[in-house]
Input
Amino acid sequence: MRVIVTGSRTWDRKDVIWTALDILATEAAKIGEPQLVVAHGACWPRRDDETGLLPQRSADYLADLWVRRGGHPLPVLRDAMPAKWREHHRAAGHLRNKALVEKGGDVVLAFIRDASPGTQDCIRLAERAGIPVQVIDYDDIADAAEVSS
Output
């Protein structure tokens, strides 16, 4: 099974992405899939100037952390496809999204926040290609602190 993860650079809810991928991996294992490939655009957050650390945000980065976490019910591979900004300039994000979709997928998990144009582009491309899209809108999910109250 191949899942394309797309999402906003400002997405900071690791719990939501990890839960969605946990559910997908569990279901894939139950139906006998030999592996789960998590494809994303490798859009990492910028390092914090003071600490030099990567902040815990960006849907691609958080999905990649999930892959690297391990302990999954089936083998999980990553397919990171970064945009080639120096080569393609402003068209790089669209061309990367197009390549992700053209490579195929069984489902797209779209984690959208702040009407991210890149995420919207990937959703449109996937829908045109007939790949089912599950949109998770940041504004529609409960805050973890609210859930535990």
Observations:
- Strands lie at 2-7, 36-40, 76-80, 107-112, 133-137.
- The first strand starts at residue 2 and ends at 7.
- The two ends are 36 Å apart (CA to CA).
